[in-house]
Amino acid sequence: MKLGRAHIIIIFLALAGTAACAGLIIQGKTSSGGADISHEYGVFIGFEGKLEELAAYETIVIDAQYYDSDEIAAFKEKGHTIYSYINIGALENFRDYYDSYKNLALGEYEHWDEEIWMDVSDPAWRYFIIEELAPELVAKGIDGFFVDNCDVYYQYPQEDILNGVADILSGLKDMCDTVIMNGGDAFIDAYCARGGNWKDLISGINQETVFTKIIWDEERFTGASEEDKSYFCAYLDRYGSQGADIFLLEYTDDAKLAQEIRKFCLAGKYHCFISDSLELEQTEGM
Description:
286 residues, alpha/beta, TIM Barrel, 3-stranded antiparallel sheet, 8 helices, 13 strands, 31% helix, 22% strand, globular
């Protein structure tokens, strides 16, 4: 991400005039464990607490590397769905495998000092993701992947990088039907332009900052430019109209802008998560 923060996806609150939460309200639904499920979806990639603290959400995105199979199974038994974050195009220095693969770095990651862009064309990195890391997450019982940093192709627009991203996504799709790509517009457009079918690689797209913008130097959020908003809306419509699941991840503490985002997602039947924190560590969206 970065979603990064570190890391899709998503929550939509259909409470007219209310900006306290960001999830679609599910009226009267109760999990098998008796807990009230009041939100459709939540993205908690930076969350470090117990999964039971997220019981109000039907579907969650977490970094499953830091949860064991028993925790995940117990949460799913209560009627929840879990997608795991997986970073294929960059490497964070807090990962336990950082020292083993940092030599494959392509360059520094602007705004995220703890990350480096990775050479996805390198066989060792692709093998690690597809044959080791992803299978470990699947073995924990996750329901799908939330894939970050396919934008490595935007940073390094080379044929071998495009092929590397495609190979990794294809491998993930073979393991799980649900593969949500965070960002990646330059990659997926280039892949399809050469005759590829996006359905072979992903099931959906999550796009950050369609309506919002991060002012990095000032550590604050604002509205996106009309040019950027138009570009990303067209991008999402292009694939959404072909059947891709579409998610927006927005960062703002502006209630009026949050309401605009929700209305847009309702009209397009998209999902969204609105956060006032880049770290996505809170148990609720805005």
